[in-house]
Write a structure and sequence with these properties.
The protein has 167 residues and is mostly helical. The chain has a domain of 115 residues: Arc Repressor Mutant, subunit A (Orthogonal Bundle), CATH 1.10.10. It is 71% helix and 7% strand. It has a three-stranded antiparallel beta sheet with strand order 1-3-2. It is globular.
């Protein structure tokens, strides 16, 4: 595996780790700092990390809940809960499909686009800083990091899956 592939895989594993841990509030706080002049503070405070990622996923085109769940690798229920909040606070609108009236598509409002662009700006900054950090490690060190992070995320997932089955 080359250095670029390793960087991307490590970033994916760290992203999974960050979103399973205590840091979602750091993302929201950063976004709130950027949007403080937009008057969106109270509404953004009520958005989940999934909701923020849904906004970003809708920047280029409208999508159904199933498409969002697949793209973001989250449950349909998670998307449904997040979408309800996004609709409530008018970050999204919904409309029926033209060909298939059963399909409901979600569309960003101007307000939702502002939050999505800010969220993407944060992820771009994280990626830039992260690439600078990773450039100081050898390929061998990156392979060890990736192995550890992959194993850590697998064990964590097993713990939580096991906990669901016992409750």
């Amino acid at each position: 595996m080359n250095s670029t592939d390793l960087n991307q895989n490590i970033a994916r594993q760290l992203h999974a780790l960050r979103h399973s841990s205590l840091t979602p509030s750091k993302e929201r706080d950063w976004i709130l700092d950027q949007l403080q002049d937009e008057g969106l503070t109270q509404e953004v405070m009520k958005l989940s990390v999934t909701a923020l990622h849904i906004l970003s996923a809708l920047k280029t085109d409208d999508k159904t809940g199933i498409e969002l769940a697949n793209q973001l690798e989250v449950t349909r229920g998670g998307v449904s809960r997040a979408v309800q909040n996004l609709l409530k606070y008018q970050f999204l609108t919904s409309h029926q499909g033209i060909q298939d009236k059963k399909k409901i598509y979600f569309h960003l409002t101007d307000k939702g686009r502002k939050v999505a662009l800010t969220h993407d700006k944060m992820h771009k900054l994280i990626e830039e800083k992260f690439n600078i950090l990773l450039s100081s490690y050898t390929i061998s060190e990156k392979e060890q990091m990736l192995k550890f992070l992959t194993d850590f995320n697998r064990v964590e997932a097993q713990i939580f899956e096991q906990n669901k089955k016992t409750n």
